Amino acid sequence: MNTETRCFAVISRGDPISEVKRELAIRTLERAGFVYQAEEPEIILAIGGDGTVLQAFHTYKHRLELSGFIAYNTGHLGFYSDWDDLDALLQAIIEGHLITVSYPLVEVHVHSHEGQTSFLALNDFTIKGVKGSVQINVCLNQHLFESFKGDGLCVSSPSGSTGYNKSLGGAIVHPSLEMIQLSEMASINNRVYRTIGSSLVIPKHHVLKLMPERDSYIYTVDHESYFTDTIQEVRCNVAKEKIQFYRCRTFPFWNRVKEAFISTD
Ligand code: NAP
Ligand code: MN
User: So where does NAD(+) get bound (predicted)?
Assistant: First the structure.
């Protein structure tokens, strides 16, 4: 991290414990000469759980090159956070003892009769039906790959692979790999309908196109959800942008996975 980095913002989950920690962080950093700057922060501290990291990401996704995120966990899973000692974390920020790691993101373009909307997802994009199963043609690099029929589809980033994607049986992917992963939600497979069944890992520069049959859909980008009955196609690819996290201790991704899903010993 640049030692000149001095402007910061704090996003809290809003519960009493996170709010107390937020006040403490602001007081301590201001006393050390840092400036609270909600508009253009260089350091973004998310206090809460993964949902809070997603909220912080979506608040500041227009500043990804200029800002780094730090996640401090106050309960829940906190897969993104590797800090449980706020004093040590604040000290590391003050002393500039932070290293930067970058994680890939999913770029999503939703085309509907109303026009095109673009999103960046830190975890995932999902699309599901409102009334029941849905039919979606899946194209890879402009070629029809399969016709999916089932509950829906999930496109995750490497760091999002431990979220919804994992519940769908997708692989856990190290965030040094620049890829997106397509996973099925309960595909119907019989004589009439056939999908690959396995999750697909799609590299950078390849384009995944989802063409849903005319119907009503709910689609999600991380924690946000949207209703549409005018969707035409969705394009997903590895984003040019990445998210930067600031870390002060080595906490390898596989240790993070083990602590989150197996045990903390
Ligand atoms: P939520 O319903 O509170 O999240 C569900 C759980 O997923 C929480 O325990 C959350 O951790 C954890 N989580 C979030 N991102 C993760 C990641 N990258 N790796 C491992 N666990 C992760 O909603 P939310 O907190 O706003 O998170 C939205 C995310 O939830 C979506 O992006 C999607 O990945 C996931 N999700 C999962 C399912 C499922 O598994 N069936 C269904 C819907 C959504 P915290 O408790 O620390 O917040
Ligand atoms: Mn949550």
Answer: 50-51, 123-124, 149, 151, 162-167, 186
